[in-house]
């Protein structure tokens, strides 16, 4: 998927939870939101983006949250 | 199935704690205080003749047919306007009364056409009935009345409305229609002009119905005791022979209707008096716009093709289904289990959406299922779950009758949810106060006998800012309901929220320039809201369809909790749902992260429950949402889609992006009643069935589950649920249901909020508002009464973040979108009815100032360009919109409203930001490039359809 779109989506999630007074809680909420609502292939791509570029275009709190994610399961090639 | 006629009690029911005892014709009876003598009699089986009274409106006392005798009183009072009193002794029959009534009838008949045998009301006419009841045997005034049927002086018929006629010659001037238009509908389109024998009913300024303010709701037709106001379908087909109670398939009000039929043909749809959402009222769509169901454009034969350049090949159901199944399997083998998915629709029944998500989860083995609620109310689901604990509105519609102040945000109830709009208007006429938060001057701001106390005309895209500013006033001016918050809400999240909204940057003054509303107005509205007593919030897509849609929903919940306006009648958070079954399709697990009942797929206990029933393993990872599906299609990881009842090409934003995504798919299966825009990109077409052709249930905006009942057999041979069952079987996953009630039984077994729901129970209760279970066996009209579903209410910090979509030199105007009364969504249904006579095209509304600057005049063709695309529409110049803002509807595919909307979306749910697009508007003299391509493509696709005869032969 278009990584720019994923970056934009991740930042807008960060925009909401980033406003929370407790920064750690905000970061955990971002990570949890990505786990609960993003399809594994989207998560895998954003994790790879952070790994390869250090999180280009992503807000700091979002990068931190993505680093916290457990590796998403590998998508099965066959049914 | 036999024709059911409603009993008319003459005057409306009253509710009172005090009961009155009286005797009528010697029979002791007891009724609530405020009940009329007429109703008291009717309720106890004693019928009093009447003409000007009917129980949907207040009595008027003009016809004098309902006279009675009351012991100790002089004269003959009218029973409809006389209230029952303790100890009254009423006589409804005597020789004097008989004589008086006969005289009254005689006078009426003296000026009546007397063409009963050929009259459309023959067999269902109150005037006829009353003539019979009073024993009218002669008319001493002769038969030469001015309106007798062959009299040249008879008044002409008004046939201007496409659905009903007004035959003034038959009018008895009982004014039931006038009062229905005022009291039930609230439009005030009718008056009685002239006096005595000359008095008559006039629409508007004595003009044809079609040019008057009439909105064609049908309330007057329903109230008319004669054939004066009559459905054209009855005039054409004659009186119906059977009736079936069912539920409207248009908006989220979910009105109950009696479908009156002759054999398999619908004669008319009559609003159901016992319908708990509509109490016998309706709007033009549900009441009249059902003709699409048998429109010649219906496709009733399954079809397949290898590529979208190929002609469609009509085939048998078996062939179409096995082709679709083999393609899905091939794609999964080649590209992976996650390369296919399904989309359900809010137009489908609960049972159908449940089956589609089951098919995706059990037969496809993934969670790639989504619903069109994605593009409308997904932020409601998310926002209300986070704050209150349940993804649903908190009230019944009737709750509004107890509200002291109503705040309407980003909704246009009189157009989008007309029957609720009428109920709201009734409450406002009774004195409730009104705050409208909307960029545009919707009708509610100023309509007969209604003026909004505040119209906060904010700039599109600033909902969160205004909600924060309102909250700022509540918090800093000591308007918080401290007791409610302390008892019912989380202390720490409240403290964080209070500190946040109290910040100076959230004050109405600081945000004034951003919002575009004077700070004093925001302060005034906040005070009114917080201090009113019962304050209720109603909101719609103007809240959800933004990049901060979910934030705004949470802002609304915060405001309601902080002011203690949750958990009783007259208050609450009320999402107005666009389509009939938005609530239901969400309840049924149509989202890629949730199983039915809003339980996350990662929850092992829930999965185990479903795995036990379904006999498969369920993927614990969330699947793709609709916009993610498009993205994945473009990058090659998503290749097959089963799309039931939803037109994603027309309804989703950035049309060209959607078209590119669908063109990249290898197997697109569309199940629909028409060859919709999406089907033009499909490889398999499965004929769908309209709501008249199947059994099932819909769940409206107040969580009310109502029955949809089959009126005619499915034109394509299979009801939609049967098609999904057959597709699952073809995929090798057996489904075995004999009737949709068995599907509901499965839903009830697996979903705690539905444990008590069954078809039998709905039949007994008329309808059920979930949760319905052991704790709430009759359902739950008001939620969160003693505690929130999640325990304590959770406040959320809602920082305003402006959308990326901003005006600049290139795109200096903000476009927002909405809908209109006569059309429905993508218009596939209403465009195929005479409703086009009200709205035959989408137009762009511009403020006179913006128009003048661009040299644009009323009716000019103008190009509307955004960074996503360009289209051409005709201009309407109006001050309803503010300078800098333009507005359009999206009911016609060729308008390409979504060619211009962008793929910005809500941060939490990806609900598209339809409501804010930066555009430029210029005068043009030809259609846009996209429109030219669209016309070519659309024509080519229609040419690929088999000829009509061949389609039917298979
Ligand atoms: S049109 Fe019908 S309801 Fe209206 S005044 Fe005439 S008879 Fe009565
Ligand atoms: S159809 Fe409705 S709006 Fe029109 S005149 Fe009758 S009651 Fe009034
Ligand atoms: S469209 Fe809505 S308001 Fe109109 S009849 Fe149908 S459910 Fe009722
Ligand atoms: S019904 Fe009572 S006066 Fe007409």
UniProtKB/TrEMBL annotation, chain A:
Pfam families per the UniProt record, alphabetical: FdsD (PF11390)
Reading the lineage from the top rank, the first entry is Bacteria
Q: Name the InterPro entries for this protein.
A: Formate_DH_dsu
Protein name according to UniProt: Formate dehydrogenase subunit delta
From TrEMBL, chain B:
Q: Which ranges of the sequence are coiled-coil?
A: none
Which protein family is it in? Belongs to the complex I 75 kDa subunit family.
**Per the database record, which ranges form the 4Fe-4S Mo/W bis-MGD-type domain?**
241-297
Source organism of the structure: Thiorhodococcus drewsii AZ1
The Gene Ontology terms for molecular function here are: 2 iron, 2 sulfur cluster binding; 4 iron, 4 sulfur cluster binding; formate dehydrogenase (NAD+) activity; metal ion binding; molybdopterin cofactor binding; NADH dehydrogenase activity
Answer yes or no on keyword Nucleus.
no
Listed A to Z, the keywords are:
2Fe-2S, 4Fe-4S, Iron, Iron-sulfur, Metal-binding, Molybdenum, Oxidoreductase, Repeat
Q: Which domain of life is it from?
A: Bacteria
Q: Specify the protein name.
A: Formate dehydrogenase, alpha subunit
InterPro entries assigned = 2Fe-2S_ferredoxin-like_sf (IPR036010), 2Fe-2S_ferredoxin-type (IPR001041), 4Fe4S_Fe-S-bd (IPR017896), 4Fe4S_Fe_S_CS (IPR017900), Asp_de-COase-like_dom_sf (IPR009010), Formate_Dh-H_N (IPR041924), Formate_DH_asu (IPR006478), MoPterin_dinucl-bd_dom (IPR006657)
